[in-house]
Amino acid sequence: FAFSQYKFINSKDYIERLCRQCFSWVFISGDGKVRISTLRRDGDYTASDRTIDFKEISLKGISKTKLNAVRNDITVNYAQDYVQDQFKGMVNVTDSTSIGTTVNGNNQSLKLETDADVLDTTTATAMANANLIIFKDRKNIISFNTTTPKYNDLEIGDIIDFSNWDTKIKLFGVAMDGYWMITSISKNVSSANISVIQVET
Questions:
Q1: Tens-of-pLDDT digits for all 201 residues of the chain?
Q2: Which end of the chain has less neighbouring CB within 10 Å, N or C?
Q3: Residue 127 contacts residue 18 (beta carbons within 8 Å)
Q4: For residues 123 and 142, what is the distance between their CA atoms, to the nearest angstrom?
Q5: Are 73 and 58 in contact (CB under 8 A)?
Q6: For residue 107, what are the contacts with CB-CB under 8 A and spacing of at least 6?
Q7: Alpha-carbon distance 109 to 73, whole Å?
Q8: pTM assigned to the model
């Protein structure tokens, strides 16, 4: 990252802006500590933080991310000129195999344009490609309640997998597999309500 911050802004907004550009988010965990979680690419997950036993949950639903959240045409603006108040560089990447461009999807180009606090083409291109990998397809989502408080130490951003999954329950015709990231969790004394998104197949 390389940029000038020439006016006062909210420090939380400043940190969140930087985190968004490298697929991270910062939050205060249940123990009161500041944590940063980073979304990795498919293939970079080799282990989970916790394995959740299917026998200890009550399955609420299986779904996919919204079709209108798919983005398969990514533009990253970079090398900001602060005097002229404009970006001097731009890179664009696309993916014709994305569900958004096939007949099974929206069958159209779905654009995302973002500004980056970087100066060089190589970094901007890497950021564009990373956005494309993450947004070009729909992701599986599972929501469930735990039936025991043993999982109440989990936090948003933790990576989980499942054991003893009922083989009769498929994920849109595909057997349960891979790693999942917690995107939402609410807790009470005896259980937790958790939503996860698939990050590794």
A1: 888 877 888 888 889 989 999 899 888 887 888 888 888 888 889 999 999 999 999 999 999 998 888 899 999 999 999 889 899 999 999 987 776 566 566 667 889 999 999 999 999 999 999 999 989 888 999 999 999 999 999 998 999 999 999 999 999 999 999 999 999 999 999 999 999 999 988
A2: N
A3: no
A4: 33
A5: no
A6: 100, 101
A7: 6
A8: 0.84
